Amino acid sequence: MTNKHPAPAKTIRLSKLMVQTGLCSRREADNYIERGWVYVDNLPINTLGTKVYPHQKVVLDTRALARQNQTVTILLNKPLGVVSAQPEKGYAPAISLIKPETRFPQDTSPLQFKPGHLKGLAPAGRLDINSQGLLVLTQDGRIARQAGWLPVETGKGIPRTL
After folding, report:
1. pTM to 2 decimal places
2. Which CA distances in Å does 95 have to 11, 19, 118, 132?
3. Which of 25, 27, 55, 131 has the fewest C-beta atoms under 10 angstroms from its C-beta?
């Protein structure tokens, strides 16, 4: 005898669904939910831990979208002898290289550097002290996840080629 009815879909935490669908990072999801900036099937949600079905429509409020548009991502050509993230004795962290005078001269972005841009800036990946090359520093968890460095369901941060 075959089952004619498929098993009902399981619910998952709204914040987890938001991360899986690429809407935002987990931290951002929790923040947006607490502020009531997340809508599930056109109903505002403001309770952390809310469970939803994967097929439900999740939309961010325009205020959340505006906040995402204010995040900063910086591409840095990390030289030898500089650490990607946590400073080590005798070595400067990559973030210390970010100054108005080190901006790429041909950068056409209208955004002007402000010290506040350094707040929450984290590397999406890493390069060893003895390595040089492109280092992506971002405030946007979506970018870090797309780069493959934030943990996914397995709980591992495994780099992948873009």
Report:
1. 0.63
2. 40, 26, 7, 14
3. 55
